[in-house]
Each structure stands twice: as C-alpha cells, then as structure tokens.
Amino acid sequence: MQKTTTPPPATKHERSERVVEQTISLFRIGYILSFILVGIGLVAALVQDQPLSSELGPPQDLLEELLDLDPNGFIGTGIGIMILTPVVMTVEVAINFFRERDTRFGTITAVVAAILIVTFGLAFT
User: Fold this and answer.
1) For labeling, which of 40, 61, 70, 94 is most exposed (least CB within 10 Å)?
2) 3 state SS of 12
3) 3-state helix, strand, coil in the chain (%, to 5)
4) Alpha carbon distance 102, 123 (integer Å)
C-alpha cells in the first residue's frame, strides 16, 4: 500500500512570489487587451476613413458604440480598460494582503483603492 503525502504548506516567500505573478498577469492582460482594442479602433478608423473623436464620451455610450462597430467605441473602451487596470490591480493587491493576514498593508492598499474608486465615480457623475 502506498503512502500518500501531502505537500508542505507554501512558505511566505512562495506565497509572495505567487501574489506578484498574479499581479503581473493581471497587469499584462489589462494592457494587452487595451492595446488590442485601441489598435482595432485605429485600423477601423483608417479603413472606414472616419475621423476620431478628440474626447471620450460617457462610459454608458461606449457599449452602444462598440455594438455599432464604431472605431471610437473600440478606442474609448481600450482607454477605459487601460485606466482601470491599475485600479483593479490595487484592489487585487489589497485582497492578497488581507489573505496573508498583513492588515497594515492591506488597510493602506484598500484605502488607496477606495480613493481611486471614489475618484472615478465622481468623475463620471
């Protein structure tokens, strides 16, 4: 009969490395997605010979523009994702600090995330 052994629990260093890898992956996904959307918008604007907007409209208009395949919708959504990626990363880092029971840095990061979220909320009202 074989004896099954459970792997030893991850060390603090291994958990920290995993958190850093997750944060870098989230950062990479957010920015790659935003660059792809902006690229699609720029190519579509060139192909359709359509002028680009000089400012972003309200976020609720982006979905309508995307569904209409408007290049400005792709570019606006890409820029929005680019802006929101660091905010999402800050929330994710705060959650990971709390998971590691590091309440001091978790609280500091959560306060920063809350300030960013409130600022975005006020900007779009």
Assistant:
1) 61
2) helix
3) 75, 0, 25
4) 31
| Radius of gyration from C-alpha coordinates of the chain | 20
CB 53 within 8 A of CB 72: yes
d(CA 121, CA 125): 7
85 vs 37: CA distance, rounded Å: 14
pLDDT average, residue stretch 93-120: 91
CA distance 53 to 77: 13
The reported pTM is 0.75
pLDDT of residue 55: 78
CA distance 105 to 110: 8
Domain ranges of the chain: 15-123
Higher pLDDT, residue 6 or 25: 25
**9: pLDDT confidence band, cut at 50, 70 and 90?**
low
Structure tokens belonging to residue 7:
């792997």
Average pLDDT taken over every residue of the chain: 86
